[in-house]
Structure formats: structure tokens, C-alpha cells
Amino acid sequence: MVNLGLISGNKGTKSVRLSFRIPYNTQWGQSLVVCGSESVLGSWNVKRGLALSPQHQGDELIWRGSTAIPTGFECEYSYYVVDDDRNVLRWEAGKKRKLVLPEGLRDGEVVELHDLWQTSTDGLPCTSAFRNVIFRKTWSTEIQRPLGVIQIKLDENVPSEFCYDVIEIARVDEVELLTSQLSADICDWQFYEIGAVEGNFCPETGPNRELVELSEPQPRSIILSDGMMREMPWRGAGVAVPMFSVRSEADLGVGEFLDLKILVDWAVESGFHLVQLLPINDTSVHRMWWDSYPYSSLSVFALHPLYLRVQALSERIPEEIKEEIQRAKELLDGKDVDYEATMATKLSIAKKIFVLEKDTILNSDSFNNFFTENEGWLKPYAAFCFLRDFFETSDHSQWGRFTCYSIDKLEKLVSKDSVQYDVICFHYYIQFHLHLQLAEAAEYARKKGVVLKGDLPIGVDRNSVDTWVDPNLFRMNTSTGAPPDYFDKNGQNWGFPTYNWEEMSKDNYAWWRARLTQMAKYFTAYRIDHILGFFRIWELPEHAMTGLVGKFRPSIPLSQEELEREGIWDFNRLSRPYIRHEFLQEKFGAYWTVIASNFMNEYEQQRYEFKEDCNTEKKIASKLKSCSESFFFLDNEDKIRRNLFDLLQAILIRDPEDASKFYPRFNLEDTSSFKDLDDHSKNVLKRLYYDYYFHRQESLWRQNALKTLPALLNSSDMLACGEDLGLIPSCVHPVMQELGLIGLRIQRMPSEPGLDFGIPSQYPYMTVCAPSCHDCSTLRAWWEEDEERRCQFYKTMVGSDSLPPSQCVPEIAYFILRQHVEAPSMWAIFPLQDLLAVKEEYTTRPAAEETINDPTNPKHYWRFRVHVTLESLMKDKELKSTIKDLIRGSGRSYPPTSGEIEVQAGREKGVATAAPTKQQVTAGLEKISLLNGSPKTEAVAV
């Protein structure tokens, strides 16, 4: 036999056996692969990675695998869940693992890696919200894996390395390992931080860590990665306010990006670590007040010109333009936002300044850098805006030869030789300055230790840049919405086309990843709007107006064969409107014959069907509008429309793509058609309905979310929160927990069954808690709008049998705020209106006027403005002190103010500082002397 080592001039390479061990429970058809940076682990090609084999150990499934490697081997690696074809289903969160072998290994020895699956929860401290903002000034090193290694011997033959991660929030001089038992079979221990302050030490929280039994034959070395240092959970507070609602002394009728700097200052002075906004993308679809709806994006990349500060466009603005700005400022300084007037004024002034300085700006290095980095979306956006204005519509199906987008057509539109080039450049110019102003505010927030939290809308407008450029990514013949819920008994129809997820998956969701990458330029946290849409979406036909006639996509429908087995045969009866003359009489009284003759055909005696020109919701609305004068003697048009919509509802919705499949209509028991069925059919349909909505879809929806959400979460390092309100499938919260997503808890809309109000002291840590949000009434308005609920809350949550005050007095607001800041939730985020309610002088405006959105009204005007300027709030020391004392007393973290930084510096230099007085410490608690005596207190479990 030839000695290959002699031929090559080498003596042969020493090798060791590398053994992987990780506990992880998979589903049928799934397995684990370890993949890494070196060829032996696939060189990051998961299909060539090392396959692991499962072994049951009690209730746990342990995955193991081994491979030979040379001594001195180093690599990065991660674990992946794959299907039978090695397609990746999901992967670990956080940073890649780093492997460095111990020194002194001999040929043939075994090194065993004991790992735990890294969840997104473990990676939360590595998100930009914590790493770049909250701990920006205190972290001395970047987290690496491992940060440190402690070597011990379980016996003389098995040296072990304990790899630990330490987030250095304070000055940590060293980490020490304390063990209570060491043997070759088992070991438990805790880590201690040593030397944080003058030699004091801080132990980990929770039970001791435990090393599992060693495998046979015993390995030469064990490298144990046992997760992050366990410390008390970090908790913070934030304020939420839409960008358009902010009022300052410098704005032009609406909040502007540069106003965020003052808002950040106020947040710091009041003890907040976070400022949350609604979406800020351009929504200029109709060029009218309808565009005030911030969730209907014209472009998911472009910023809204509404938030531009025109005074900051140039340092050389002529006096006549300055005077025009001042006049506009006085004219637009109203109680609410005048969307159309504000947009028109800002664009008019911006065009005048653009003419004066376009050559300077467009030839500058900073603009050219911006253009180069963003031209992929900026050129289509500018071209779209030009075509929208030229054709006087955003409906690109009306644009003739420009209806179908192409690169060639785009390049001609934006060419420097085109007659419209100045118009195109104006849109570049506006986006450039919006970028500069938002980036300035975002960096200011980071330096102040304040997280800027954005909002990721679930949909885009049907007539948007995105549907023009990438129509294949959308199902343009459908619409998205929500089934009937707390907000609206008729459901909601948002009008957005649903996503073609199958098409999006072909490039690993590049469109979504680009959105998140763009968003991360400004934000360090974000809210995923309607996160349920990533599990399944409520899909409506294009002809729907309400949310009643929808179905979940994806979902497993009822098959004709399944229904026939249950004795259901009359599919035409169940899938078409069922209208008897008694129903018409009941809804329209003496005038039922007028309605019947205009809208119905009598297809058999006393049985009716809708005419062809009014057999959908949109057709009914259109016909009512065109002949409303004929019905002047009837009730109002809205009531007629609602009653006709009710008659339109069938029990089963037939799949338009497969006539043998059916979807049960939401709340089918409420239909007149259902009530007229025989008992057997009723019982069967109720059982199938319950199965469809609450059982059979769970596995499908879980798999769908685990395909789509990781692509989003791994495309940026922002902290991700999910808006999980509404009808929540049982698979949602486990998936959110697995992916490290923070949920939302609104007290008056409890997630827990059987509760009238959420109990903040029992909320999970991975949540944002809030007394209200932009989609419901404010704290004050809610208190005043429903006497029965108010009394119920006062009795169950305040603990008083007396009659509550009819107004939400400051003491009530303070009590509810205190409930939330003391909750275990990671974040307590309060709408600014709810915070202002703790001071009487800010409660003079009618409470109903402070509500931002009415979800039941698809044409709601989003125009609320805070009635006090940010500058005035900065001067209100009493309000800031009240709020900060509330946060301080709850144990939540808060950013230090300039004065506190100076005090801390004085302490470090040995300068004595006065301790806070008892009066200062208890100021917040004394606020809560409720009308019936002492307040009810709650124990907080963290």
C-alpha cells in the first residue's frame, strides 16, 4: 500500500473526532443539519452540511452527529431544520457560533459540543435597539461567541470548557464559575459577575445550570454553550404618537421629521427609552385627504413629503419665500391637520426652492451617494409620480403604453434628455431631503439612548409603485381585510391586494428583505402590522366592500365529498343568497315591494334572487347611489345598503378557482339562510364551521409563518414586535415565542379567554403593554363612552364598589398608567394622549376628538393633532416629573438626563451629591389617592 504521507512529504495530519449534541423537538418529516464555514460542514451550503440523527432521551429529542477534523480546526456554524429534500424550514437566530478547539488535543481524541438551540429571544440583546441605542454608551465590546472560556476538569480524563456570553451593561471585571457539585456524571453551577462596583458581585438569576450525563466512550473535552448570562429582565417604557399628530413651534400644519429631536428630548426628560410612530411612507395615491390613511402605501420605500421641513431645504431661502412660509404657518396652524392644504403648500414652496438650488444639490457628493444607494426604488417612484400627475390618476391600468412596467420604458422616462427630467429630479430632491432630515433625527435619538420604533404596514395600495413594478408579487383580483371582531361586526376591507407568497418565495422574499433593510436606516425597532397576515390573510373578492364574504388564505376548505358524507347535498341553496318574501318584509316593511322590484327577480313563488346588475356588494352600492332619489321615501341610504348586504350573505362561499370546494361564511349562524335550515344541517354545518376556523388550519398556518417571518426577521437587526390583536389562532403565540417576537397587550381587549379586562401584572415578559392604541379610543374617550364597562372596570380592577366618576380624572389615568408600568412586559408604551390625561389642564379638549382612527369607517380622516406644542411640554416640569417618578418607581429602566449624567460623573470623582428626598421618591405614589380611599395595589411577578 502506498504511504500518501511519504509521497507528499508530510507525516500525515493529526485528526480528532468532533461530536455535536443538541436537544430539539421536530415534527414528522423534519430533521436537523449543522452547517458551517468549512467544507467538512458544507461551506454554508445546507444541502452539504452534516446531517444529525435523533435519539429519544425521556421527553426530549436529542440530535447527534460527528465528523473527523484536523487539530487546530476553527470555524463558524449554525443549526438548521430541513425537510426530507434538505430544503431549509428554519434556522437558529442570533450570531453564528464560533468554534475554536482546545489546545493539547491528541490524535484520535473526541471533542463533544453540547449546544442549545438559539432562539430569537436569546438574540434580543444583540438587536440594534439594545446594542446601538439603550446600551450604546455602556457596552465596551461587541458580543462574540464565545466571549470567554472557563476550563475545569470533571475528572482527570475529561477537561471541560464552559462558554459564556456576557452583555456588559456595567463595568464587569471578570466572570467566575461557582460550582456546587463536580463529578464525572453531572455538574451544576452558576456564573457571577465580579467587580461591577467596588468588588461587589452579582449572581445569575434562576436555578443552577446543569450538565447532562456524558456519553460513552467519554470524550476528551466538552465544549458547553449554555446561553446568555441570566440577569433580571430589562424593562423599559415608551411613548407613541403619529408623526402627523406632533405639534411644534416650527412646523407647517403637521408634525415633521425634525420635530422628533424635541420629542426625543421630552421622552428622555420624562423617562422614556422609546418613541413609536405610525407608518411614514408616501401615501399620495389620490392627491386628496383620503391619502391621510398611513397604511396604504404609494411606495414601501419612499418617505412622505408631508413630513418635510421646507425651512431646512436651504440656508439661502429668499426673504419673499420666508414670508410665504410664515403666512402659511399661521394659516395652517389649526386644531386638526388639513391634509390637502398642507401638502399643496409644502410642495409649492419646495418647488420654488428647488429651482434656486437644484444644480448645487443634484451635483453634490452627498446627493450622488444617496442616489446610487437608492436608485433601484427611487427611479420607479419618481417616474410613477410623474405619470400619476400626467394622467391624473394612480390607476396604472389607465396609463396606455405605460400600464405595463419595463426597464426600457423607465429609463426613457427618467432620461436626462427627456422633457420631464426636471419633474423627475424634483421627486429625487424631495426624497433626498426627507432622508437627510429623518436620518438626522434618528441619529439624535440613538445618541440620546432613545429607540425610534417604526411601523411595517401589512399591505400596499392597489395603485402603487410596487404593484406597477412587480405585479407578479400580488393577487390583484383580491383584497385584504379582517373578519368581524372587536373593532367591527361587519369585518374590515382594507382594499390592498393579497400577496402571492409562492412567487415571493422564489427569490427568498427579496421584496420584503429590501423593505426591512431600508427601514433599518432610520429605525432600531419596528411593529409588524397585523402579524396574523403572515400566518394567513383574510382574503376578499375584488367586488366586496365589507369583510363578511372573505376566506382565509391559505386554508384547507370543505370539500364537496366531505359535505356529502355528512348528508349535505343542496350546494346551490347553501352557496347562493337565500331570500324569502318574509325576509324582505322584515327588513323593509311596507316598502319591501319597491326594493324587490328594483333589486330582485322572483325565480319561484315567494323566492327571490338579486338581479345581475346588483348581485355583489359593490354593485348594490353603485345602484343605490345612482337611483337614491327614487327611494327618498325610505330610510337613509346606509340602512338600505346594510339590509341588502345582509340578504346577500350565503352560508357557504364557493371557491372561484375550484367549484367543488367551499368555505364557511364567518358567523354563518347569523344569516337568515342558516336559520331556515333543518336541525340536522344546522348541527353539521356548525361542527364543520368550528373545525374550519379553530382546528384544521393550525399546522398549515404555523408552517406558513415559519416560511415567511424568518425572512423578515433575518433581514435586519431591528427589534421586532408583532401586532397580534383580533381573532388569534392557537398557533400564533407559540410561533411568536419561537421566533422571539414581542406581542401586544391592550387591557380592554384581553387575549386570555374569560376575562373582561387584561391583568397587566400577569402579562408575559415578551409583550408590549398599553392602555390603548391608535386603532381604538383613547383612555379618556373609552372611560366616557360606555358606563357599564366603566363601572365593571372600577369594580374589578380598582377594587371599589362605589360609583366611578363619569370623567377620566387624572387620578384614574394615573392608576391605569401605574398598572402598566408595573407589568412584567418588556415594554410599556403609552399613547401621548393617555399620558397627558394625568394633568387636568390637558383634558379640556373633548375626549372623542383625541381618537386617531375609527376602524369601522374605511374613509376615516387621519388628522388628529396634539393641542399642545412640544416646546410647551418641555417647559412643563411637573408633568415630566410625574411621569418619570411613575417609571422610576416601577423598576423600569430610563435614560439618564443631562443633569443625571453630571451627577453620576460627580460621584465617580468623589463629589458628594444629595440623595433624593422621601417626598421625591413617593411623589408618584401619592398621586393615586382614588376617590374611595387607598388604591388597590398589585404584586408584580417578574
UniProtKB/TrEMBL annotation:
Record InterPro entries: Carb-bd-like_fold (IPR013784), CBM20 (IPR002044), CBM20_DPE2_1 (IPR034840), GH (IPR017853), Glyco_hydro_77 (IPR003385), Ig-like_fold (IPR013783)
Residue ranges occupied by any CBM20 domain in the UniProt entry: 10-119
Documented EC number(s): 2.4.1.25
BP term (GO), one: carbohydrate metabolic process
Gene3D superfamilies: Glycosidases, Immunoglobulins
Primary localization class, coarse: cytoplasm
Family listed: Belongs to the disproportionating enzyme family.
Species of the source: Rhododendron simsii (Sims's rhododendron)
Glycoprotein listed as a keyword: no
A Pfam family reported for this protein in Swiss-Prot or TrEMBL: CBM_20
GO molecular function, one term: 4-alpha-glucanotransferase activity
Protein location: Cytoplasm
Protein name: 4-alpha-glucanotransferase
Reaction(s) this enzyme catalyzes, per UniProt: Transfers a segment of a (1->4)-alpha-D-glucan to a new position in an acceptor, which may be glucose or a (1->4)-alpha-D-glucan
SMART domains: CBM_2
